[in-house]
Amino acid sequence: MSKEERQLDRFVREHGEDGATFAPTSVEEAIGGSFVETDEIESIQDRVRRWLDVPRPVHVVGPTGCGKTALALSIAAARDRPVVWINGDELLTTESLVGERSGKAQYKERDNYVSGVMKKKSIIRDRWVDNPLSVAVQNGATLVYNEFSRTKPAAHNVLLSVFEEGVLDRPGQRGEDRVVEVDPEFRAIFTSNSTEYAGVHRPQDALLDRFIGVHLDYYDRETEVAIVSERTDELDDESVERIVDITRELRDRLELHIGTRTAVMIAEGLVVFGEDALVEVCVDVLGSKAESIEEVEEIREEIEDAV
To answer: What's the pLDDT at 170?
Structure first.
């Protein structure tokens, strides 16, 4: 089962409906926790919202762990519209986005028009199932397409007509149902890692020409401290600031992508292991990025110097 299918299964369990759409009652519900808003974050949110009002699809690009997904979901939830989620994956196809025929549906008709005569007949039809993109454009939802650039570009050709002509062409559907108009309330936010990451595809230029690109870096110190503090309230302010400062220094020392998520994980570890285990906790958290024991030892040395 792909990541997208697992995500949709979760929505089925939590929200019912069709597994793709949910109507968040709050930002916290959308992102699964509290969301920190500092001046820096509010500035980015306002920038994205204004482009959505134009309206233009917004592509948020940045390093892993910098908060792209939470930012996109917080903006989507604040629109007070249904939200549709897609998680990019190498195996996603046009059908995964738009919809496809899924087996047969059988209908029975009874004809009692002539007195004393009853006719029965079975009608078997192909059953069409709309997938997330179709659901979003028809219901005026906010589409949040996470890890957009992990999907092969060919799957995204259907997006060109959505953003240029305001219609969605559904390959595999027939007759007048093949093309659907995009609801005027439909909006889209895409998130991607920077192109230097493994497993990332560059989207086709024709599509990028229709996107607004908002590039993020790691947040400033004030914002990172606020985020870590919010996620681990068991630690005092001094401990949180120390963790953030060490993380930011390691970001400069090591050729690794060390996001705010790393600082949160270190803080969570210290709650359990105690602050005397700071070096070991940092090694364990960053060790997941190492490819060999030799690299782990190099990371340890840099951590000890930073601490």
So the answer is: 84
